[in-house]
Amino acid sequence: MPPKPRNRDRLSVYFLSAGLFLAGALLALLVTRGYAIDIDSLTLQKRGVIVLHSEPDSAEVTLDGKRLGKRTDARLSLAPDTYRLKVETPGRIPWEREVRLAPGEAVIEEIVLFPDAPGRTDLTERPVERYAVSPNGRRIAAVTSRRGDALLHLLDSEGQERYAARLDAAPGSVAVDDGEFALAESAGRIAVYDPTGKRVGNIPGGKAAFVGGRVVFQRGPRLLSTDRNGAEGQVLATSPRGWAATAGNVYILGRDGALADVTPGTAREAVPDVAPVRTIASAGPEAVQVTQTGGSFGIIRNGSYVPIGQGAARVFLSPDGKFVAYRTSREIRLFDLETGRDRLVTSLTDPPERITPLPGGYYLLFRRSDGLHAIARDGSNDRVVARLVGGEPTVLGLDRILTTDTRTGRLVRIDLKD
């Protein structure tokens, strides 16, 4: 029988090996769960994750001034700390942000790298007086004028002209619907044109809009609806305090501050939970803005009222219908219609008149004297993405913006991806 001391040595080696194995397995398990050893304090820390998605992808990632050799879409597992990130690719404006990473936190960044020299395409040869875009974004009605000669152009987003119709006078407003009919309102009459440029309606009236394939307009104290050639008239309301329309609905403001949906072809229906109302106004093809007498505001969308906040000047719906951008006296804010989250984007001493959220809500566009700005929804990366912008932008999608050129006055398309 071996001596006892030798048995003890073998047992010690066995237990030590087993202990080291279990410790290693536990450490490996903790590492897979996102923990790391802090060498300075010899303690375990829960790591965090930064995920970087970019448009375009395969952009280079720099962390605290060091190139990582990683490209988007990148996933960085890091100890809790504050990091300076930079994402860049040739020909694009770099994205930079300081990210504070908490233990176990996952930070996801959706990044658009805007071109440093965006493409510009002239859509008209003459200066543009005004323009409108169809709700589906496929057609543009633009009015040009030169030496008193006013033309109504129907274009597609590529700049192809369907027709140019001569107008009797420069109109006060224009509109185009998804059926490719256009209208121009001036001097108390509404001219309606079919997709070939033929005038099919000449309706006496003022302010007008297309709603569900019909023309809704005001004539004196009455709000009326007709088909596109001016026949089959219907009185929707008499002496409303105000009215506003989406692509599919008409809302009126009564003298008692109550709102009603008077969409042609449907029964008049009160909009609940919103009275008393002070003003209503269009907020894009899908929504109208409502301001109540106490200063609170919201939007009506698909017949329902969504309260948003207090003290807004104007609100604008994103093209995908998921976000509302608005400004107060000194702030730009973004409201998520799916989650109800209201976030401060940035504070400005002189906020812009109009703020347009891009699809997805990760960036907002606004115009200042030095050009068209894009800003991330967390307030970072305020960049001039296009210069010589003369008019408020209309967003056709993530990559295409309509505006006017300050040098020529022409309608231009700015391509923010190319």
The CATH superfamily of the domain at 43-112 bears the name Immunoglobulins
Which geometry do the CA atoms define?
globular
Alpha plus pi helix count = 1
The CATH architecture name of the domain at 43-112 reads Sandwich
Strand order of the largest sheet: 5-4-7-8
Helical coverage, percent range = under 10%
Beta fraction: over 45%
CATH fold group of the domain at 43-112: Immunoglobulin-like
Number of strands: 41
Protein structure class: mainly beta
Rg, Å, rounded:
29 Å
Q: What is the distance, rounded to the nearest whole angstrom, between the alpha carbons of the first and last residues?
A: 84 Å
Low-confidence stretches: none
CATH structural class of the domain at 43-112: Mainly Beta
Question: What does this entry look like structurally?
Answer:
A hairpin with a 4-residue loop joins β13 (149-156) and β14. The chain has a domain at 43-112: Immunoglobulin-like, CATH 2.60.40.10. The strands form eleven sheets. Strands 5-4-7-8 form a four-stranded antiparallel beta sheet, with no helix packed on it. It has a four-stranded antiparallel beta sheet with strand order 10-41-40-39, with no helix packed on it. A four-stranded antiparallel beta sheet has the order 11-12-13-14, with no helix packed on it. By secondary structure, it is mainly beta. It has one helix and 41 strands.
